[in-house]
Amino acid sequence: MLGLFLYCFSMQAQVTATGEEVAAVKAQDSIIEDDYRPLKPAQVAFYSAVLPGLGQAYNKDYWKVPIVYAALGTGVGIAVYNQKEFQRYRTAYKDRIAGRIDEFTLVAEDGTLNEVFTADALLRAQTQFRRNKELAILISAGIYVLQIVEANVRAHLSQFNVDDTLTLNPYFKRDEFSPINTFGARLTYSF
Hints:
Elements: H1 2-11, H2 19-35, H3 40-50, H4 54-58, H5 64-98, E1 105-107, E2 113-115, H6 119-158, E3 166-174, E4 181-189
Antiparallel strand pairs: 1-2, 3-4
């Protein structure tokens, strides 16, 4: 009995892999790791949140970085312009209420005052410029969030397995006997 046990025990041998087989397994593991990284979308979203456009650069979509900065810069520029105009009309309104001559009051040679805008028009202009400023800030915040979402979605889709088993191709058939042509789309799934 002991001999049978020792015989079975000695029959179990450890198979050692050659250096080439180990290298092949490591290469295959590294390909799998490079193809799918579960934290990449979160990392890209964090980069985009810290510095707008950095997530797009991390995804190697360098052409999107100027678009992000142009959109954000335009929104901020519009907000700054409307804030300056709001302050301009506000100062003019305060001067008018205090009885001083404001920038929208013209003084003629004979000393008469000609107001370009009424006090009510100055109030309406303030309201309009403040509304435009707030809208520009909201749009800029929306663009900021949108660029984070875009970078995150692009990172998710870059890890998606894309192959030719499912294709959607345009379909065009010309009829030789009549002037009617057939247009459409062809969905193909191959096993």
